[in-house]
């Protein structure tokens, strides 16, 4: 699934005071990121950072955010992260994961992806192909599962016919591993570094 990347997440700079960020709507009202950070309980923020950002320091960052409220600008958020994460590459990666988590939560990106993957099963005819470009493991994991077993949440292998043992999955992956950008592509577009492209052909099953 394509989407805006967290530009603010790639830098530890604290000079950004804009109310809108790549983490989604950063307004203080509605369902924006700032509203979430200012109103959710600490354990709820921790869950978002852990689930959608896979951030190992989710608990410490959530506590720092709550202690340093209100979160009005991106600088406030960056300062809260920097207060509990070592500087340098560790801070840059943690910041990127936090912004990813907020963006995914605010925009319901995984919900949108799951809806598309579910609909594709009805839209694509047998012999047709589904191609998905994902930019982080949360997306790629779901795409991989659907293309292998037909289920978004099941990590098991594809279902098989009880009599002959034939695979009964609705999709047949064209490759066992995803296609990744070449070194030349990464040089030309650094944001492509995390891209994973998977493709599968619609079968006659299910």
TrEMBL record:
- Which species is listed as the source? Octactis speculum
The ranges of region (Disordered) come to 1-27
Question: Which residues does UniProt call coiled coil?
Answer: none
Reply yes or no: does the keyword Heme apply. no
Q: Which Pfam families match?
A: Methyltransf_5
What protein is this chain from? 16S rRNA (Cytosine(1402)-N(4))-methyltransferase
- The biased composition feature labelled Low complexity covers 1-26
Going by the UniProt record, its keywords in alphabetical order are: Methyltransferase, S-adenosyl-L-methionine, Transferase
* Stored SUPFAM superfamilies: Putative methyltransferase TM0872, insert domain, S-adenosyl-L-methionine-dependent methyltransferases
Q: Which family does it belong to?
A: Belongs to the methyltransferase superfamily. RsmH family.
């Amino acid at each position: 699934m394509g989407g805006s990347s967290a530009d603010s997440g790639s830098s530890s700079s604290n000079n950004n005071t804009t109310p809108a960020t790549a983490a989604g709507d950063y307004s203080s009202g509605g369902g924006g990121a700032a509203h979430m950070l200012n109103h959710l309980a600490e354990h709820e923020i921790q869950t978002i950072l852990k689930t959608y950002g896979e951030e190992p320091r989710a608990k410490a960052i959530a506590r720092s955010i709550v202690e340093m409220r209100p979160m009005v600008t991106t600088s406030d958020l960056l300062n809260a992260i920097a207060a509990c994460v070592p500087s340098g590459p560790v801070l840059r990666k943690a910041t990127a994961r936090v912004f990813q988590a907020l963006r995914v939560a605010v925009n319901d990106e995984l919900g949108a992806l799951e809806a598309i993957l579910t609909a594709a099963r009805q839209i694509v005819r047998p012999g047709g192909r589904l191609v998905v470009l994902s930019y982080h493991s949360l997306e790629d994991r779901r795409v991989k599962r659907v293309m292998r077993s037909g289920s978004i949440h099941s990590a098991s292998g594809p279902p098989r016919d009880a009599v002959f043992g034939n695979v009964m999955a609705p999709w047949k992956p064209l490759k066992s591993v995803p296609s990744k950008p070449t070194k030349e592509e990464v040089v030309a577009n650094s944001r492509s570094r995390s891209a994973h492209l998977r493709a599968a052909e619609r079968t006659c099953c299910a």
